[in-house]
């Protein structure tokens, strides 16, 4: 395997504008290309199967640690790593936490 470096790129709002985020036609074309790659299966998403929509942190119902969040309907914290092939050949990850009224423990 070649010696490759790994970098992380964070885009500011001016960076996004410079990259063309305000060009709706180009954005729709890229989204269409992305959906075509998804339709062909040229992607992976993190989880037990390629179509998983992320990996969730499961909080315990009890904890000996006072600051540990406990399980409940408002406890969701997920990582959504993914790879997209085609000309993009890129990986990325989305992290999010949310207050959710639906209790994931009972799905």
- Contiguous runs where pLDDT drops below 50 for at least 5 residues: none
Helicity, in percent? 10-25%
Counting structural domains, the number is 2
* Structural Rg: 18 Å
Would you tell me the overall average pLDDT? Answer: 84
Order of helices and strands: HHEEEE
SS field, number of helical segments: 2
Q: What composes the largest sheet? A: 4 strands, antiparallel
**Content of β-strand:** 15-25%
Structural class: alpha+beta
Shape, please?
elongated
Q: Terminal Cα separation, in Å?
A: 43 Å
How many strand units? Answer: 4
Task: Describe the fold and architecture.
This protein is of the alpha+beta class. The chain has 2 domains: 12-40; 42-107, no CATH class. 22% of the residues lie in helices and 21% in strands. The protein has 2 helices and 4 strands. Strands 1, 2, 3 and 4 form a 4-stranded antiparallel beta sheet that branches. Strand 3 and strand 4 (90-98) form a beta hairpin. The longest helix has 17 residues, at 24-40. 0% of the residues are buried. The model has no long low-confidence stretch (mean pLDDT 84).
């Amino acid at each position: 395997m070649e010696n490759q470096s790994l970098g992380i790129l964070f885009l500011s709002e001016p960076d996004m504008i410079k990259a063309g985020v305000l060009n709706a036609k180009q954005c729709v074309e890229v989204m269409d290309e992305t959906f075509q790659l998804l339709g062909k299966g040229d992607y992976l998403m993190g989880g037990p199967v390629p179509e998983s929509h992320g990996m969730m942190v499961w909080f315990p119902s009890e904890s000996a640690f006072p600051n540990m969040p406990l399980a409940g309907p408002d406890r969701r914290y997920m990582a959504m790593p993914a790879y997209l092939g085609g000309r993009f050949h890129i990986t990325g990850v989305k992290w999010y936490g949310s207050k959710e009224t639906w209790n994931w423990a009972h799905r």
